[in-house]
Amino acid sequence: MKRKLFLSFFLVFTLLLSACSSDNAGTGEGGGSGKLDIFSWWTGAGEEDGLKALIALFEEKYPDVPIENAAVAGGAGTNAKAVLASRMQGDDPPATFQVHGGAELNDGWVAAGKMETLNDLYESEGWNDKFPESLIEMVSKDGNIYSVPVNIHRGNVLWYNKKVLDENGLQAPKTFDEFFQVADALKEKGITPLALGDKEPWTATHLFETVLLGTLGTEDYQKLFAGELTWDDAKVKEAAETFKRMLEYVNEDHSSRNWQDASQLVGNGEAAMNVMGDWAKGYFANDLKLAVNEDFGYVAAPGTDGQFMVITDTFGLPKGLSNADDVKKFLGVLGSVEGQDAFNPLKGSIPARIDADISKYDQYGKDTIEDFKSAELAPSLAHGSAAPEGFVTKVNQAINIFVTQGNVDDFVNSLK
Ligand code: BGC
Q1: Given this chain, do its domains 25-152+313-369 and 154-310+380-415 carry the same CATH topology?
Q2: What residue owns the CA closest to ligand 1's atom 6?
Q3: Where does the signal sequence lie (predicted)?
Q4: What percent of the chain has pLDDT over 70?
Q5: Residue nearest to atom 1 of ligand 1 (CA)
Q6: Ligand 1: does its nearest atom lie under 6 Å from the Cβ of 153?
Q7: Which terminal Cβ of the chain has fewer Cβ within 10 Å, N or C?
């Protein structure tokens, strides 16, 4: 225990040190070095490819504005968010940073008075009718807009290895009952049914929230976050039971893998399925060089057909920067059709804009663009849209305990 604690301190210390010692040590200039430092957690295959394409496009358009990729590794911002918090507290904000639309932005940095409004940018770029209203709402508070969505990720996707299912005469499951039937059949043949990598606990939260959505449906799922349904409701317990049952089918070494390592198990056929946001598609395609609908397939996670767990990565303008005009140039590129179409086909997400060039997207992207238009939309908990960061951190801790101990009542009580 002590050793673990020491390692955690050491990690945070190292991260803080590396953030301070970069040539960006700041003076409120969006990096201080005069460079535009673009802060995110996109360092993995697909994620990084998308970011680099965006930066390259910016450099082509503004060769005189030096720009720097200041990404900090760790899925779902596991480490980046701590580094960002310390920079923001020290009045050393990055030029712009990745933040999820919804509570993470609005109840976090906006409520803390750390963000500039971007109403004028939306006006000058003519963006007000170029993003879906639902998305603009996610980046607005009290009638002001605070960030620019670069994408829409779908969280509730079940990915599967086509060959593994085909060879075993199995169809991708659409309901929980089907899931358990398929999982039993696979287990009998010695194949790991479900890949999980919860070394970073958010991946288990991610799986749980899709089970929650599949069990409660969009309306009740949303009621949980509006305080209209309590966390010890019978349906939440049912979801916890189902989640627990699903955990019986995961790879034994789940706690030593991250989301990429877990996706890799599916990609190379060591496991049959995983539930992950569609950044996994960016990983399958860019890292493992697998083809959509040939090597791997996708369906909505069990019970969630017609529902869309929305995750949107957005970038805003921190207060107090002396190079705000340059930051707005970057946001202008990020919010443009060209920018979104350079970024999203690599990232695995769909464009946030409604007028993007659909021909640039593979079949998964095309299907998802269509699904988004008609599906019921639900905000992701694991990815900061449904509830503020402090709550998400506590849920991650509760899930982490639940994965090892499996006590439904304790789990539900801690959620409550
Ligand atoms: C982000 C994605 C990212 C994923 C894994 C999510 O929270 O929204 O952009 O790819 O985490 O790092």
Answers
A1: yes
A2: 76
A3: 1-25
A4: 92
A5: 76
A6: yes
A7: N
